[in-house]
Description:
The protein is an alpha/beta fold. Among the domains are: 1-139 and 1116-1193, 3-Layer(aba) Sandwich (Rossmann fold); 506-672, Alpha-Beta Plaits (2-Layer Sandwich), CATH 3.30.70. It contains 19 helices and 24 strands. The protein has a 6-stranded antiparallel β-sheet with strand order 2-1-4-5-6-7. Strands 8-21-22-3-23-24 form a 6-stranded mixed β-sheet. The chain has a 5-stranded mixed β-sheet with strand order 13-15-16-17-18, sandwiched between helices. Strand 16 and strand 17 (655-656) form a beta hairpin. Helix 5 runs antiparallel to helix 14.
Amino acid sequence: MVLKSLQISGFKSFPDKIKLDFEKGITACVGPNGSGKSNISDAMRWVLGEQAPSVLRIKNMEKIIFEGSDTRKAQGMAEVILVIDNSDRRLPVDSDEVAVARRYYRSGASDYLINGKSVRLLDINRMFMDTGLGRDGYSIIGQGRIADIVTARSKDRRVIFEEAAGISKYRYRRAEAENYLKKAEDNLVHLNVLMSDLEGRVGPLEKEAEKAKKYRVISEELKVNEIGLWLATMSRSKATLRDYDYKIMLVQTQQEELSGELEQFDADVNQLEMRDAELLAGKDESLRNASSLEEQSARLEGDAAVIDNDISHCEGDIKRIEEEIEQSRKEDSEVFDEISGREKELENKRAAIGEKEKYADSLRQQAQSLSDSEADCSQALAQLINEQGTITADAAGYRVSLAAAQSQISELDSRGKTVEEALASYEKSIVELEERLGLSKQAQEKAQSKVAELTNAVAGIKMKMARQQSKMDESRKLAENLRVEALQSRKQAQMFEDLEKNLDGFQHSVKTIMKRAEAGALRGIHGPVSKLIEVPDEYATAIEVALGATAQNIVVDNEDHLKRAVEYLKQNKAGRATFLSITTIKGKRLEERGLEDFGGYVGIASDFVSCDPKYDEIVRNLLGRVCVVETLTDALEMARRYGHRFRVVTLDGQIINAGGSVTGGYISKKTGLISRKSELEKLRATADELEKKSAEAQQEYERLKQKAAADEAQLVGAQGELTTAQEDRMRFEADARITESQIKLNREESQQLRQESSYSRQRRENLVREQQTLEEKISECEEKLALLGEKISERSGSAEKISGERERLSALMNEAGLEILALAKEAEAIEEMIASLNDRRQRDKGKETTLREQIVQVEERIKELAAQAEELRSQAQMKKEQAAEKRDGIIGIERQRDSIGARIKELRQNSRDALSKREEYIREIERLGGKKDQLSAELDNITLKLSEEYGMSYREASEHYDAAEDEPAAKRKVAELRGKIRALGHVNLGAEEEFKVVFEKYTTYKTQMTDIEKSKAELLKMIDELTENMKVKFTESFKLINKNFSEIFPELFGGGSARLELSEPEDCLNSGIAIEITAPGKSPKSDTESFSGGEKALIAVAIYFAIMKVNPSPFCVLDEIDSALDEHNVDNIARYIDRMSDTTQYIVITHRRGMMEAARMLYGVTKKNDGVSRLIELDISEVEEKLGMTSDN
Length: 1193
């Protein structure tokens, strides 16, 4: 068996598909730290079935998939394929080549495949068992785990030795046999329980079968007598019913005659009332007419008086109009005089405006002449001022530049001295820092060596803790999961308890009665039927459906308590409820031939209910005539066979009603009144069991936690030393980097200062030349400014004189303009007043004409009003006479109404007498009808009993049975037979068939027990043989491994001795394995903790080589097992591996020269900034050349 290739895709730092081809001998994988080369060994371990994330150096299994980087997307799946040459058929697969693949998806799904076929992890473990390649094998030694076999507890070491001894397969087979043995023992216990149950049932069943025979004989006789009695009762009752029908008919005839008389009385009264209503309406009409005529007369007289008043007003209007005409003539004369005066005033105003306008024109001409002279003068002055501003600005700029140049020269002189001093200081500092750098690098090398040693020690402790933590996590998760499940069960149970407590699902009336009973207000209340019975889970649905609404029927002590409860519901309008009295309700059980022989028959519903004996009759009354079968097909067949005489219900709740109707469909299994009680008990039991298991898991977790605490303390100590060493190394590294940085910085600063000094000297020379030029320009500007100042003063005096004269003329012009405007306004006002007075004169002339026309109109109006007043008074007198006639007619109507009222009273008295008589007839009919209904109910009850108890109609009973001739004697016979049946007690009609079935089961179970006892003996023998084989193989292999170890150790150590010992030789299959070492020149030690990290690694390598010589693994992966070794020991191990590579392929992950020199193939692993590992196949010759160069240097 040879390892051919390894293909990786999406695994950890290998997102791209890579393939490593292997040949015989040693293959080395090299690369810098962090490049991902150890992920290759992780991939091999993972594809062979490793499940612990900590062993694979990840937090959780999802981290096995490439997570992406800044430049690469995350992968959705990781896949590793391991291809093995199986030509020798060492693996139990009929193929020359075996490809083992494992995939893991980001969703959490995973696949295992062998040659492309999906398999289980168990199949892979079985395939590699005893080859050293399995999950617990020794073929793959992970990074930092070489010393685990040395530092592990003695009992923990034996896993690898068992794999090497080839007894893993035997141990697995023994575990399987022990499991089968346990199952056989459990089956025996179960069969013993069943047998003891059956043995106790055989005898009683035989007696019950005999009792069933007696029951059938008595029941048949009872049936004949009871049906005969019922037929006689029904015949007598039917004759009585016919007599009641005749009496009811006679009374109804008399009632109908009285009803005719009552109808006539009502018709006469209605006719008279209609006549009285007509007379009353006529009276009301006459009253309204008389009142209306009287009101019209009064209104007409009032209108005549109003007209007289209007005439008086018209005469007053004529007098007023004549006075207004006289006043208007006087006002017209006064207005004419005022108009004449205003026209003379207007002429004077217009003359004054003309003079003022001439004066203003003269002033404007003078002002215009002055404005022209002033503009010429201002233009010349502005040009001079602009020129002065330009020269002043130039001079100011020259002065600022001069000051800046002088300041810069001063600063450059000062900075030059500072630069010279700084240069001297930097040169001195550089010398001191170079001395300090040399000391830091020496300290850094010493710290690095110590860190490497402590890292190996910490890795060994962590590997041991990782296994412990995995077990702790499993215990903690189990305890937490069980606790959550228990809590959920408790919550569900609490929900069902609340439903039961609040009577959820019950009718309002039932809740009301139960609350009153709990409060003590109602006595004798036992509760709803559903709360008084117990039903096994498998029958709960069937019983729930069979009861239906009757599950809410309330059971009471007696009829007195029943009446009080019903009365309470009526008084409080709390709804209706059905009550079952213990003293009244009687039940009957269904008895039909052949039920037990029916294929799907389960039993009678009442037989599956447990309750207090005092409720037995009620349960039989509700469920005694309901048959339970397995399926709806069985139910339909049974109903047809027995003529739909009784109800049939299936286990899943479908029901065939008596008569043939079917009720079915889906029904919830947990919401029924009965089902939820059963569900509540199940939930409580489940919660108790889960809490118990959770507590056990928590105890195991605490035990492991205490054990881990000790390991943690050991790790903390080692990590503390490592941290101190790492801090020292980092401090020395940081100090060296800082020193190098300071040296570099000082040199750069010195160079910058020299450049600055050169530039400053050149800059100062330029500034001195610039200073001289600026001083000359400033002097030139000052001379120009003095000349311009004299010219500006001369021009400014002339301009001021012209401006003063122009301002005086402007003031006079403004004053003249205001006077002209005021005169114009006054003239305008006078013109408007004259126009207004003329308009007023015209209005007054039109007003006088209008007033004279109004006098003529008013005089004509007075004549018209006088004629209207005379006409109105004549009409008012006529209305008075008509009203008197209407009031005389009302007296005659009142006399007619009195006569009609007396007749109506007489007819109503006759009607009341007839009604009283008719009510007597109605009561008689109701009495006779009640007796008839009672008798009919008795007949219906007998008919129902015939149907329910004997499954036949009245017609069928009459055809097959004779009516009893002597009813009293028949009643006594029925009572006697029922007494015999009661004396028999409970009768199991299916006892004979049940006895047969039970006996067959008893025989079958006995045979099974014999077979199981035989299998148990064979299993015990197999376990003993496997155990003995395991002892022999382990002992032989252990001796060989110990012998090899004692030979290999001194070869690798250069002397000394070593051996392995069983801590319990008498129990070699469970014994721990101790290691005793005698290093060269030292005393023997069994405490491996005192050895250094390198020594532990060398001891572990010697043990692994000793195992490999006994049971060579086809291939072996060694991940940096040489990291803690010096070059000499690395060379020794490399030579030894080379010798063993004839029988085993070695894949070595290393960065040590000795290992690389021994390799026949080299793969390089690199990683860039994108976080992706890349594989490079290296040329051996090139590597050897480079290694040689390194050695020379």
